[in-house]
Amino acid sequence: MITKVEALSFLKEHQPMPSDTKVTEEEMKRYEEVRTFFIKNPDEQCVSLFLNSFGGKDGLGIYQMVEDVIIMYDKEIVLPCILHAFTNSHKGVNYWCIQIAANFPDESLLLPLADFLKSEDQDIKIAAIISIAQLALNDIKVYEILKILKENIEHIIDKETKEFAIEVLEDIQNNI
Q: Which of 6, 8, 14, 129 ranks highest by number of CB atoms within 10 Å?
């Protein structure tokens, strides 16, 4: 059984976790143990640590479940942590924090998410488009979102990403 001190210590030592190709099975088992611990024993100290722990695209399938921990907390706790994690240069951190941000729609996310539309990483761009669309679905700065998407679509080179962005833009326009 892991303790709170051990769980927090593990997260602090893994900012971020090793990439999927370098992480050990033992490290991911421990990460899952820490995730489960904080579901059973909520402590807001874990929010920022989890948001900065993503070391690769999927963490052997565990990263997507971190959202279960984060959504337990109020927007007032999570948003500052997400906004800070957005400044992290690690792509895994960016990708997963963009994904999680969709659960906490707030206008403070719009400009940082818009910056991710310029990313070279297509997965990050798509995640940003989805989170921006979630803002629009919550009636947050819809006309500004339309403008941002229109401006950025012309710079998207990847055909599938561009088609997805156009589809999202059209969906938003049809719902206003």
A: 129
